[in-house]
């Protein structure tokens, strides 16, 4: 019984009842317009004196409501009211104006259904409670039986008079049941009529995919720039500390390298954060490329004591901007990976060369078999990541796994290239192959 009472008079039922009454209120102007058509057509000036004429005016007004519902703001307003009063999950409803004939047609159907059911329930809500109150009070007030209320003569009988209060209560319950059923019907049809169209779902999915792609790109930029800077600065500071009393010149060079690294990284960080704050903002500083900062990257890496040899057999200035930018990040992350896992005193060989229609990037550093295996994820190809087994020395600036090699594989794949990383005999080898011309 409590469930039935909640169905009729619960919070959700009451809110839906209010929603229906609002629909009846919205229907009134259209009913008045219907009177202007029905009255002259039937030769009557007092439509509200006749229930058939009222229903005829209502029937004429509903098509007029359907015509006016094609305005852009109709669907957003209906959706807002449905979310507030009908208890429908907001994710199942569309946002924004209806676009396209199908969406406008469903909006018109919803608006007409809302006003139609709302007009009926609102009319019943105005007429039924007074009638039910008279029936309930009829046995106790003889004046009501003697008044000219147009009551049926059967109510003068004793048995009918005794059943009048029961009929009055039953009438109120029937009104509540009609309102609850009508509210549930509207809630059931709301997602179908006010929900997003397949085109809108596709557009929303594309927008989410673009947002995720942008977030992943920014995450890679932050990881590569900030991660490399922290690894390099840590090694530079460590090397300077060890020779602080014996090699002041090296210490000065390490401090200059730390200053340059942090200043450049702060600039890159500000650029990325500006994009995060404003999706439409453009980076305030250009991203580094092979042509603009390869020499600086190698110099800052050597400043930490790393024995770095570099062979560049390509014209970095002739590379397309996307390839030059991603190649720089790949070299940066490869160096950061070597410093992180093999230590600052490791010998690293970098080779960048153009072969045919591809740019080949190779980074190698020796393995030390007396050290722990690295825990980064090393993709063997652009689509097949596997666990990395390269050793890591005790001088590693930080422990734990990362996402650098996976990010390298992602960068290569987005350009249509490949990336392979893993131990080759006694050497850890990272080899990336990129097309010289970035795909569209």
Automatic annotation (TrEMBL):
One of its GO terms (cellular component) is membrane. Its EC number is 2.7.13.3. The keyword Transmembrane applies. The keyword Transferase applies. SUPFAM superfamilies: ATPase domain of HSP90 chaperone/DNA topoisomerase II/histidine kinase. Signal peptide: none annotated. GO terms for molecular function: ATP binding; phosphorelay sensor kinase activity; protein dimerization activity. InterPro entries: HATPase_C_sf, HATPase_dom, Sensor_HK_TwoCompSys, Sig_transdc_His_kin_sub3_dim/P. Residues 215-279 form the Signal transduction histidine kinase subgroup 3 dimerisation and phosphoacceptor domain. It catalyses: ATP + protein L-histidine = ADP + protein N-phospho-L-histidine. Residues 362-407 are annotated as: Disordered. Residues 325-436 form the Histidine kinase/HSP90-like ATPase domain. The chain crosses the membrane at residues 20-43, 55-73, 109-138, 158-182. Keywords: ATP-binding, Kinase, Membrane, Nucleotide-binding, Phosphoprotein, Transferase, Transmembrane, Transmembrane helix, Two-component regulatory system. Residues 362-391 have a biased composition (Basic and acidic residues). This is histidine kinase. It comes from Streptomyces spongiae.
């Amino acid at each position: 019984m409590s469930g039935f009472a909640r169905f009729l008079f619960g919070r959700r039922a009451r809110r839906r009842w209010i929603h229906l009454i609002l629909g009846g209120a919205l229907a009134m102007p259209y009913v008045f317009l219907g009177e202007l058509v029905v009255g002259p057509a039937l030769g009557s000036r007092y439509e509200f004196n006749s229930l058939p004429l009222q229903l005829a005016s209502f029937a004429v007004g509903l098509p007029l409501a359907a015509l006016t519902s094609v305005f852009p703001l109709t669907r957003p307003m209906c959706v807002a009211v449905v979310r507030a009063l009908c208890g429908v999950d907001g994710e199942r409803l569309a946002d924004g104006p209806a676009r396209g004939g199908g969406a406008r047609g469903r909006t018109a159907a919803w608006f007409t259904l809302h006003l139609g059911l709302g007009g009926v329930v609102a009319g019943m809500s105005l007429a039924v409670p007074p009638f039910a109150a008279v029936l309930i009070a009829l046995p106790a007030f003889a004046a009501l039986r003697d008044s000219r209320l147009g009551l049926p003569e059967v109510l003068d009988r004793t048995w009918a008079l005794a059943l009048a209060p029961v009929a009055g209560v039953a009438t109120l319950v029937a009104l509540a049941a009609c309102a609850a059923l009508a509210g549930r019907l509207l809630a059931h049809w709301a997602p179908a009529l006010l929900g997003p169209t397949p085109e809108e779902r596709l557009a929303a999915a594309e927008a989410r995919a673009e947002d995720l792609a942008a977030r992943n790109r920014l995450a890679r930029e932050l990881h590569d720039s900030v991660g490399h800077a922290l690894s390099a600065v840590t090694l530079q500071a460590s090397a300077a500390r060890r020779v602080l009393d014996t090699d002041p010149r090296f210490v000065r060079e390490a401090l200059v390298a730390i200053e340059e690294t942090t200043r450049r990284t702060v600039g890159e960080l500000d650029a990325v954060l500006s994009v995060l704050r404003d999706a439409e903002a453009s980076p305030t500083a250009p991203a580094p490329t092979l042509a603009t900062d390869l020499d600086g990257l190698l110099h800052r890496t050597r400043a930490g004591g790393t024995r770095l040899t570099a062979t560049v057999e390509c014209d970095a200035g002739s590379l397309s901007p996307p390839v030059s930018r991603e190649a720089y990040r790949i070299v940066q992350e490869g160096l950061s990976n070597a410093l992180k896992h093999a230590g600052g005193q490791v010998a690293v060989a970098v080779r960048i060369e153009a072969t045919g229609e591809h740019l080949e990037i190779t980074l190698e550093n020796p393995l030390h078999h007396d050290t722990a295996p690295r825990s980064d994820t090393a993709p063997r190809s652009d689509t097949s990541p596997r666990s990395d087994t390269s050793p890591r020395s005790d001088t590693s600036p930080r422990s734990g796994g990362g996402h650098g090699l996976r990010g390298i594989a992602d960068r290569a794949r987005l350009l249509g290239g490949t990336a392979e990383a893993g131990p080759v005999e006694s050497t850890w080898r990272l080899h990336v192959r990129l097309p010289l011309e970035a795909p569209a």
